[in-house]
Structure formats: C-alpha cells, structure tokens
Amino acid sequence: MAQYSRVRGSVALLRLTNPPVNALSAAVSRDLERAVRSACADSAVRVLVLRGHGGTFCGGADIRELAGLVDVPFRVGVSSLVALVDAVEAAEKPVVAAIEGVALGGGLELALGCHFRIAHGQARLGLPEVTLGLLPAAGGTQRLPRLVGFPAALELVATGRDVSAEEALALGLVDHVTDGDVEEAAVEFARRVADEPLASRRLSTRPPPRPADLDTLLQVALERAQRRARGALAPVACVQAVRAAATLPFTQGLQLEQELMAALLPSNQARAMQYCFFAQRIVGKWSLPGGANWRNSPARAVSRAAVIGLGTMGRGIAVSLVRAGIPVVAMETDEKQLRVVTAMLEREAAKQRRSPDSYLQLVQFTLERRDLGDADLVVEAVFEDLALKKRLFAELSSSCRPDTLLCSNTSALDVDALAAATRRPELVVGMHFFAPAHVMKLLEVVCGARSSPVAVATAMQLGKRLGKVSVAVANCPGFAGNRMLKPYVEQASFLLEEGATPQQVDAVLEDFGFAMGVFRMSDLSGLDVGWRVREEAGLAGPTVPPGESARRRHGCRYSPLADLLCEHGRLGQKTGRGWYLYEGPGGRAATPDPWLHDFLDQYRRRHGLRPRRIDQQEVLERCLYALANEGFRILEEGVAAGPEDIDTIYVLGYGWPAHRGGPMYHVAAVGLPAVLSRLEHFRRLHPDVPQLRPSALLRHLVAEGSPPISRWRELLKGLRSQL
Ligand code: NAI
C-alpha cells in the first residue's frame, strides 16, 4: 500500500498505492505513516519524496468507509489520516510531495503536511469535502489559510472548487510546477532542499497571515456563506473552521475542526449529499431493454462534431465541445449569431488561460449545410418546432456521412418522430443539455425506441468528455426532467388561484433550498416558451376547442394564468415584467408587482374563487409531492432506471438543493407512507387534478413496507411489468 524504496543515494521515494485513486483508507494511512517513520529512521536517507501510484497523487479519504461499504468506520479513517499528516509534518527530514493527477481532499491535506509541494502542470488540487456535506478534517482548514491566506482558503474550502497547478502556484499552494516527469523534478528539488531548516515549512507552527481588515473579511465570508448555503450546514461550518485558524492557536483550531466534523458526519444533509455523490456514479451504468449496456457497448470516437443553431443553447454546446478539444463545424441561418459565439469563445479562452486562437481555430462557422458532411456527430439546437426539426433531420440524413450520429437538443419533442424522418433511426438520440450549456453539468441522453447501443454509448461518453454527468432516459414528452416539472409548475399556479402570491410560493421553495422559486425561474426562462408548447398541444390560444371553460381542459383542472400573462405581453425578464416587475427589459432584480396582485384579485373574483390563507407546508407538499409523484410514474414506466437518475437530473439540472438529496430521496426521507397519505388528502380536495393521484409504484412501495431507496433500483427491475 505504501512502498518505500531508496533511490539515488540519499533520497527516499515513498509511493502511495491504492488504485484507482490511492484513497487514504485507515489501513493505507497507517501503512504510509510507518513508511515515513522508517525512512526517517534510516540514516542513509536525507530527504523524502512522496508520490502516488499510477499517475495520480491521491483522491482523498476512502469514500467506501464513508458509505459504510467496508467494516472500518469513516471516523477511524479520519483519525488515521490526522495522525499521518501530523507525522509527516513532524518528520525531521524534509518531505516533498510530488503531485500529479489529483490531490483532492485528504490527498491535499497530506500534501499540506509535507514541507514542500511540486505539481505537474496538468494536476488539479482542491478540498471538495463540502460537496459531501463535510469539511476537511485532517487539519486542512487550519493549514491552508496559513499557506495561502484567508481569502483564498475561505473560498476553496467553502466551495470545494479545485484549482489547476498554475493557479496553485500563483496562490502559493505549491512551490514549483513542472511539465516534465514529476518524480524527476521532485527528486532534483529534494536534493536542493535536503539541508534546509524545516521550522518555517511546518504549517502548524506558522503564524496565520493577519491583514488589517481580517475581522471584516471573516465576518463578510460567514455572512456570504450563510446566504449562499440556503440552509446547507457544511459551507457555514467550513467558514467557521477556517475562521478558527485566525482566532485560535493551531491545536484548538484543529479541535474545533474535529468538533464541526463530528456534528456534520451523522447529519441528514451529509447523508443526502453522499447519496448524490454515489448517484452520479451509478447513473453512468446505463442499460437498454434489449440487454445492451455500458459494459458491453463501446462508444464510437468523436473527433469532429457539428452544431446546428447557435442560439441560447447551441452556442453553449459549441463552447463545451471546443473546450474539450473537439473541432466543431457550427452552422446558423442568422449570421449575427456567429459573432456572438466568437465573443463567447474568446471569453472562455481567457477564463481557461488559453489563447483565443487555440479555441477559435477549432471552430469552422458556416451558413451552409453541406459543410457538415464530415462530422462524426451532429447536435441540432434550432427552434423547438417539430416540423422544422423533422425537415432538418431528413436533410441531414441525406447530406451527412451514413455513420454520422444525429442528435437533438429538443427539450420535450418526440425523438422517435425525428428518427423516423431519417434513413438511420438507429443513429438518432436526444442530447438534452441545460442552459447555459457550457456551465450546467447535466446531460439527459434520450434513447429512442430504435436508438442503437452504439448511439447511446457515444452520446453518454461524449457527455462525460464534456465534463457532464450523462443520464440515460427513455423517450416520452418532456423526458424525465421537464415531465416532472409540469405538475410542479401547475401546482404553483393552482396555489395562486387559491390565494397565494408568487413571492410567497417562491420564498417557501427558496427556503427549502432551491436556487430559485418556480415563478422567478419561469420569468428567467421566459413565459412564452411554455405558452408556445401549450398552444401546440391545444391547451391555450386559438387551438382550444370552442366551448371549453377557461379553467378546464380535457375534463381536468387547468390554470390559464401564465397564458393570460403572455397575452398581456408579460413574458418575464426579457420584457421587464412577468410574475414580477424588473428594472426594465432584460432586468434581473425581481420586485413584487401591484399590477399582478390586482390582476390575481380580479381573476379570482371573475371565477368565483375565494382566496384563503395557504401555509408553507401546503406550498411545499403540493409542489414537491406532485413532482415526486410524477417521478414514481417515470420509474414505473421505465423512463428512468432508478431514483438516482431522477435525483441526479434534479440536483444538476433544476437547482434542487443537493443537501436534500433530490426529489425521490426527499420523499423517501420524509417517509413514503406520510407522502402517500398527503397525496391522498390533496387528491380528495382536488379530484380534478390527476397529478395528485398517488402513483401505483408509490402505493406498491408503501405496501411492501417502504424499502430503503438503495433497494428501489433492483426492485424496479422485477416490478415494472406488474405495476
Ligand atoms: P434559440 O431561439 O435561442 O436559438 C435557436 C437558433 O437556431 C437561432 O439562432 C436560429 O437562428 C437558429 N436556427 C433556426 N433554424 C435554423 C436552421 N434551419 N439552421 C440553422 N440554424 C437555425 O433557441 P434555444 O433556446 O437555443 O433552443 C434551441 C433548442 O434547444 C430547442 O429545441 C429548445 O427546446 C432546446 N432547449 C432549450 C433550452 C433553453 O433553456 N433555452 C434548454 C434545453 C433545451
């Protein structure tokens, strides 16, 4: 696990070996500590170099201990790691960390215990514990600010962001960066520092930097963390721990770090976030009804891609592809969109510290479809118009190479209908990105009835290459994410009819932890998007059958509120007014609009609706249970393979707070019998709202004694045909 081999005279080389990421399990930490001690005791050794096996330094503590997948409890792993880092730092001979691949979490804390750090140019360093609902608890919160100062340490610990070697050098986190062999560089460096005094290199004994405005800085950081955390405990605990490095001696700071960790570790939030972590890994293991799966279906290489339509979505997709080093042919009918993409690529290159040309040379802009012929894969992102997309797919099928994959970024349209318009339905899949596509981490891969395993594998793999989490779902209106959004938005609208206001509903959802309440979100995306979809579906506008009442469609309750706002020209932020009022068209700051409140009053009077007081619990339960209920239907129909898929989609694509695990995790945590009973209650009160009718799967799970969510995936395999 930790090999100690003497190399080249006085330099001892220690190699951490625990594939795949050299995780620091309790056993590995103890082993390495022994190796450090014996190297120090060896009189022929003057300096130690510590590196990881297989091209990576260390991915952190052993996450399997965290998940209870091994017998050793996680806290034992943490205390072994603390002892290891202390032993390394206390060593009487210099220890040089040779970092390549990653030094994350406990891996970076170990490196902070070393006296010197050398990094390979491609290495990434960070403390991502906060994303698991925890904090770095092997001294990371105390040593990091002593090395890089408080502003950087606060930001890195509280957000979990990792940094490149170049940024690490600028921050003072590493002493030297090499693009050559990291071990060679570290050995050479070690020889140079073999006789240097170590006192000032031991971070625990170094006084923390004290800028004049330190108190204000720490206070502002705490307030910001509280505001941004939206109820999450870990980011606030991270700031408290780093703050202790300024206010307490090292050992007391370390003790506070341990106490905060002890409070976070058993919390429901940490459990929810760890569930999200594992869920994001489970979803990569896709399978299709015919037996093809992630293991037996190799992806095809994509060495050249094309994007059609460079609007809101297409330009983000093009940037993602370029950033991943994939040459792109970008096609538009509107020339000015090409300029927007160029500017975006230049900004992105600057952000990644690359020359603009390194990105721009990967893009070929065109207004001609014939230039797409050579692409391995095409992503279509033109207007959401089925007839237009079908026409385009038919043309692509004749103009592209016969083996080119044809993908659509449609948000809800029928992928099978697009496939049927081509001569290669097996090479058609949905690649549903989320806005902004170069930022959002989610990709829904929509498998049509005829999509081939290679097409699915290639889309899933491409998503991963673009740095996204790909989730495979089956084809149905709205797929998984947008389909579940419909009952959620609908409930919110019904609540307005019954007496709530947009700001009341949004406040409850934002208190729950959503990045944005449903009405603010709808103002941001534009109310006209849904309006057009409803018009096409015969629910709004001139296509509604004559004689249909304003508040009913196909025998069910319908709220025309959003349609009425659109008819008044209130399309959201873009027009400066929607559910809220903004500073002007394109404004971002939402304020309650008296016009809207009068409008709601008049609407209720017109339809004989007596407004009532609606409490927080009702807002949450009606919105969230209706959404999760649709999730159960999606599972029973096999549109998604398991609750992990739905939860990943919601956390990464829809701003669902990770510390609440996702909608399916949330209802499991509340308790399925309680959720079922509330849905039955609401269903009795609103018999004309089918989305409140509890799904067969929810009933089944309750009848089976509510098995834990970790078992649903397996249960579903046997259940689907019976539900
Ligand atoms: P958009 O209106 O911003 O952009 C569409 C672009 O396609 C325009 O620049 C237009 O000039 C271009 N275009 C239209 N017909 C074309 C053709 N025949 N050849 C080449 N270019 C053509 O639309 P947006 O929002 O980017 O949506 C594109 C697709 O992505 C739609 O299917 C939409 O449902 C989907 N989508 C949108 C999301 C969003 O948040 N906006 C999120 C996820 C998916």
Automatic annotation (TrEMBL):
UniProt keywords, alphabetically: Fatty acid metabolism, Isomerase, Lipid metabolism, Lyase, Multifunctional enzyme, NAD, Oxidoreductase, Peroxisome
Gene Ontology CC entries for this record: peroxisome
An annotated Gene Ontology molecular function: NAD+ binding
Pathway in which this enzyme or protein is active: Lipid metabolism; fatty acid beta-oxidation
Domain 3-hydroxyacyl-CoA dehydrogenase NAD binding: from-to ranges: 305-475
Origin superkingdom: Eukaryota
Any one of the GO BP annotations: fatty acid beta-oxidation
InterPro entries, sorted: 3-OHacyl-CoA_DH_CS, 3-OHacyl-CoA_DH_NAD-bd, 3HC_DH_C, 6-PGluconate_DH-like_C_sf, ClpP/crotonase-like_dom_sf, Enoyl-CoA_hyd/isom_CS, Enoyl-CoA_hydra/iso, NAD(P)-bd_dom_sf
Subcellular localization(s) per the UniProt record: Peroxisome
Catalytic activity: (3E)-hexenoyl-CoA = (2E)-hexenoyl-CoA; (3S)-hydroxyhexadecanoyl-CoA + NAD(+) = 3-oxohexadecanoyl-CoA + NADH + H(+); a (3E)-enoyl-CoA = a 4-saturated (2E)-enoyl-CoA; (3E)-decenoyl-CoA = (2E)-decenoyl-CoA
Residue span(s) of domain 3-hydroxyacyl-CoA dehydrogenase C-terminal: 478-582, 619-705
Enzyme Commission identifier(s): 1.1.1.35, 4.2.1.17, 5.3.3.8
Main location, first listed in the record: other
Entry similarity comment: In the N-terminal section; belongs to the enoyl-CoA hydratase/isomerase family.
Oligomer status and interactors: Monomer.
Protein name per UniProt: Peroxisomal bifunctional enzyme
Protein source organism: Scleropages formosus
Lineage: Eukaryota, Metazoa, Chordata, Craniata, Vertebrata
